[in-house]
Design goal:
This protein is about 55% helix and about 15% strand. With about 375 residues, it is α/β, with parallel strands linked by helices. A 7-stranded mixed beta sheet has the order 3-2-1-4-5-7-6, sandwiched between helices. Its main location: nucleus.
Length: about 375
């Protein structure tokens, strides 16, 4: 009727109960530990956020901490590499600038060398043409320049580079004489072997040419410029021994460093033809060309002139002014020299070895040497 009750109860049921209790207890403990861990994690995360917001931001986005740290390190590396890259770029730019400067200097040196070579060639050819003009007759030179105008231009280019070194320019002295001396007012001037035509240009630029004003004013000049070749509009081509002007048309004939050619004495007889009676012959020449000044002056006086003025402004040049006293109707032979026996006596004394004392061309050449530059 009554069930037997054991004090110990049913061992199977007790064991099951005990096991269920233990499992519940373990689950409870596990739940509590998880909760504590979560609390710890949340607390550490809060502390981490406060101490290092960048890391927490990286962790909150789902990136691991090490990866975030690596990213930070790489960004720091990039930031540290930026100034290094800038410095290397600056160094490259400096190197390029130095190279460019070096190249520019080298190019300038090369250009200077080229210019010196070209100037040397121009100077060399100028000396060749200069010697040619002094050692040939005017007709031969005229024929050459008629076919080779570039040689004439090159000669005058070289001549201009030479006169830069001179202490005083002869053409300026002549211009000053023509401009300031009262006897040359309203003069008709023939500039033979005019070169660049400086005399014409001076009076033109100062409104003292008759051709610029139809009304004749005091001090107005008429200037005719002649040379073997014309490189300016106002220059006329002519051999100085045969000028296309009428007899006795000029008041002044000028030879400024222009007694060039083995037959220069024919230029002087042509000047006598062009000049009016009492007209003036003006000569400027290199001193070193004249072997004997008195004999040179005496020879010109044999052609119908009389020396009026002799100026030696420096050791380089002389400045001679003659007046025409008579027409020269004699040919270029011994008759001209016989007009002045004093000259002939002095010449023979100076040049006793002269074989033919009647050769006027030879005598004239012995008194005025060619102006030849030293070969380099």
């Amino acid at each position: 009727m009554f069930n037997r009750i054991s004090i110990g109860g049913n061992p199977k049921k007790d064991a099951n109960k005990e096991a269920s209790k233990n499992s519940n207890f373990n689950q409870k403990n596990q739940f509590n530990s998880q909760k504590k861990g979560e609390n710890k994690n949340t607390l550490s995360s809060l502390l981490q956020k406060r101490s290092n917001p960048e890391k927490s931001q990286d962790n909150s986005s789902g990136k691991p901490y090490k990866q975030a740290q690596n990213n930070n390190q790489s960004s720091n590396k990039n930031n540290s590499q930026k100034p290094q890259n800038n410095q290397s770029k600056q160094n490259d730019q400096n190197k390029n600038k130095k190279f460019q400067k070096h190249e520019e200097k080298q190019n300038q040196k090369n250009q200077d060398l080229t210019n010196r070579i070209e100037q040397g060639l121009v100077g060399s050819k100028f000396r060749m043409i200069n010697e040619y003009l002094y050692t040939t007759d005017s007709k031969t030179s005229a024929d050459h320049f008629a076919k080779n105008k570039e040689d004439f231009l090159l000669y005058h280019q070289g001549f201009q580079s030479q006169i830069v070194k001179w202490p005083e320019k002869p053409v300026d002295m002549i211009i000053n004489e023509l401009n300031s001396n009262q006897i040359f007012q309203n003069a008709v001037i023939a500039d033979l072997g005019c070169g660049d035509g400086k005399i014409f240009e001076y009076f033109r630029d100062n409104n003292k040419l008759k051709s610029l004003d139809s009304s004749v004013k005091q001090g107005m000049k008429e200037v005719h410029s002649f040379d073997l070749c014309a490189h300016k509009d106002f220059i006329k081509v002519a051999d100085s021994k045969n000028i296309p002007l009428k007899n006795s048309e000029c008041d002044v004939v000028v030879f400024c460093l222009a007694l060039m050619g083995t037959n220069y004495i024919e230029f002087l007889t042509e000047a006598n033809r062009l000049l009016k009676l009492n007209g003036h012959l003006i000569i400027s020449e290199v001193n070193s060309r004249i072997t004997d000044m008195d004999l040179f002056i005496g020879m010109i006086e044999c052609l119908g002139f009389k020396l009026q003025k002799k100026i030696l402004p420096n050791t380089y040049f002389c400045f001679l002014t003659f007046k025409k006293l008579a027409d020269n109707k004699l040919k270029l032979n011994s008759q001209i020299l016989n007009q002045n026996k004093n000259f002939k006596t002095k010449y023979i004394a100076k040049f006793p070895k002269t074989k033919d004392q009647s050769d006027v061309l030879y005598i004239s050449q012995s008194l005025l040497k060619p102006c030849i530059y030293k070969k380099r």
